[in-house]
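Appendix B: a complete holo record

For completeness, this appendix reproduces one full record from the ligand-bound portion of the collection. The bound molecule is flavin-adenine dinucleotide. The inputs are the chain sequence and the ligand SMILES; the output is the full three-dimensional arrangement of the complex, encoded as structure tokens. No fields have been trimmed.
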Amino acid sequence: LSFWGWGYADRFPDQQSRGALAEQVAALLGFQPLELAEPPAVADIHVPDTRLDIPPEFKAFATDNAINRAAHTYGKSYRDIIRGLSGNFDKAPDLIVFPRDENDVIAVLDWCSREEIAVVPFGGGTSVVGGIECSGRTQDGVVCMDMRGMNKVLAIDEVSQLAHIQAGATGPQIEDELQKSGLTLRHYPQSFEFSTLGGWIATRAGGHFATRYTHIDDLVNSVSMVTPQGEYKTARVPASGAGPDPKALVLGSEGTLGVITDAWMRVRKKPTFRATATVGFENFDDGVAACRDVAQARLYPSNCRLLDKREAMLNQLPSDGKHVLLLGFESAYRAQNGLMNDAMLIAERHGGVAIEGPFFRSEGERAPGSTMANSWKRSFFDAPYLHTSLVSMGVIVDTFETACTWDRFQETHQDIIRSVRAAMQRATGRKGIVTCRFTHVYPDGPAPYYTFLAQATPGQETDQWAEIRWAAADALSRNGATITHHHGVGRLHRPWYEKEVPLTFRNALIATKQSLDPVGILNPGALVDPVS
Ligand SMILES: Cc1cc2nc3c(=O)[nH]c(=O)nc-3n(C[C@H](O)[C@H](O)[C@H](O)COP(=O)(O)OP(=O)(O)OC[C@H]3O[C@@H](n4cnc5c(N)ncnc54)[C@H](O)[C@@H]3O)c2cc1C
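The structure of the chain with flavin-adenine dinucleotide bound, as generated:
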């Protein structure tokens, strides 16, 4: 794995391929010729000396190796990759521990509580909100707890359609194991390849389903967490009306209240009936209205992704300059023709024209489906590799996401686009590009997702990025849209998160933090601090 960028190190393209890509990007986006930066050499990176000795009882599962510490320093946002590319790992944790079981987790938390050492729970390290970087190494030491050694599917209850899975299991590890029983979790965030179940639960990740089961929350039956004050295990029941939900405290806790060790997850039979279609709209607002009607008709498509024409272009969909709606339905039990036909009627009523499909696939059939949907899927999972390449050629490229009610969408969307364009011009002195897609849609509102690209001035990248990113966050906040639909709060979104939630809730969360983690060792700086 790359210690500074996304994914496997050998998938970072060579200089010649990046040169060709840089020319294409500059021509497509109207940027000046782009200069290529080379990835950092291991010999040249800066990792500060560790401040901690590995206790003898942790020797079997801990390391202070410098490259390992560098690889656990940052997440995978634009700012993280810029810092990694520069070889600066000033904020590296002092030790990495790889617990083998719950007992190791308990032992490390006990030691860190006693010695007042910070602990950062780490899943796949794919956070884009500063979730895993310990603010400023202000503690006397920082231990990064990498959960990927606890990566097993422990049990499958086929009768209840539940699977007991350890927190460090990545998307592919989970799916490979469930597939043996014809089951699937069907939670596919774009970071699927490397992110983990514990990370998904800790950040309330958003997955494959564009409607209904959108967040990991919907798939968690029960969860186990270890806190500095002891175990926190929720009841294995399908639903309960017994007071406030203990599970809700774990969802979105971002490593600040405890370490998630395992969960019983709702799994389903792999879908065999599918319907897919691609619809084009001349007018973005018509596509928006179609999505709203599909959501409010409670048709619950698994895919309902509206891409504006720039987003379609960046993803190389041959949409003829139109805005594109990708529609998909799936089931393990029944044909999806009726639901798809209803959705197509709605889209057509709003001026949509079928570009491809609808295609229907029944049990056992291997019909091809929509080529646009397939190429979207490919570009969706390749995008993170492209992102790292773009950063290395001087392009500021980042995303942010939100959700708002339908009545506020138009005004919010326009304000966001205006503010981000103006900030790109201000920060870089040049025009940039901002695109929008809906990742999820609900009966009461969409979850729009924005990508911006601008040309960086060498040496000023992070300041320029911050100016654009803060302008975006301020636009969300003043329009009453959430600071995040699924990326989480971390350190990056914290000021806006604190404005978004009621003060009384914040105080209750601080009291909870104080109760579960009284010394304040867990992920200091993220989400919530204990009473100071
Ligand atoms: C290219 C790219 C695409 C992405 N696409 C999506 C997407 O489609 N949907 C989405 O929701 N997000 C997405 N993300 C964001 C990120 O992948 C998610 O936040 C993901 O859930 C993080 O999982 P992780 O295992 O990598 O956790 P990490 O990044 O390692 O950690 C994230 C947070 O969770 C905490 N944490 C991790 N494991 C545990 C544990 N076992 N116990 C307690 N706390 C823990 C950490 O302390 C940290 O606060 C994307 C990120 C990238 C880089």
